[in-house]
Here is the input.
Amino acid sequence: MQTSYSGNILVVDDNEGLNSLFELAPDGRVLSVSPLSGYGRDAEGVALQPETGTLYVGFDSGAALAIFDWMPTEITIDTPLERGPDCAYS
Here is the structure.
């Protein structure tokens, strides 16, 4: 999911990977990697409400949902993109 607030791309990987949230710049640079194992196992989806900075991560194991306050590591666009829906899903 590319956020309209920062231009960054948010991706989660599951237990076959690091079970982490990755924040990527549009050019592919890794801006941050945040482990999610303390919140759930087998991360499968991510959604962001950029106006409030609320980040949702869904987990297959236990059908759990973790909710975080999120701020971009870096703003990677000069002008915010046109506002999309309240939540974007990946």
